[in-house]
Design a protein that fits this description.
It is built from 2 helices and 10 strands. By secondary structure, the protein is mainly beta.
Length: 149
């Protein structure tokens, strides 16, 4: 089976998600994904894939709510506004489909990548390392990086 990236699924700190198909992603840079082993919130020991930073351009067609996602804030604001007003993306799944069956959209595998996170508010929800803006062309740019914005 040949894996082919189908989409990226972002997880917000409050439990909301946002799935973006690959055709709605412009520039993308995920820096230095490494493999670690750890336990999160008392769960089972598992492989964890942290990265150093993320830079992504998301095209206007992605500013919607996927019915498979639970996006209460996205329903009210739109996903671009939600991502810029509430900088709380903590991880993402890279979703793969079977590249040997190009007409199938069944997800056959996923890798979970964790982003650098430093709480910037007393509730611990907003990430001091995340910045974003919407351009005049209505493209969303998001950076999650301890050293850059």
């Amino acid at each position: 089976m040949k894996k082919e990236v189908a989409a990226l699924k972002f997880y917000f700190r409050n439990g909301e998600t946002w799935t973006i198909k690959k055709e709605f992603i412009g520039d993308l840079w995920i820096k230095q994904i490494s493999k670690s082993f750890g336990r999160i919130n008392g769960g089972e020991l598992q492989e964890i894939f942290p990265c150093e930073s993320l830079k992504i351009e998301i095209l206007p067609e992605a500013d919607n709510v996927n019915t498979n996602d639970i996006n209460l804030g996205g329903l009210e604001l739109g996903m671009f506004e939600r991502a810029t007003k509430h900088p709380d993306i903590e991880k993402m799944d890279i979703l793969y489909k079977d590249g040997d069956h190009p007409k199938s959209d069944v997800i056959v595998e996923a890798d979970c990548v964790y982003f650098p996170y430093n709480p910037s508010d007393v509730d611990g929800n907003d990430n001091a390392y995340q910045t974003g803006f919407v351009s005049a062309e209505n493209h969303l740019y998001v950076v999650i990086d301890p050293n850059k914005s």
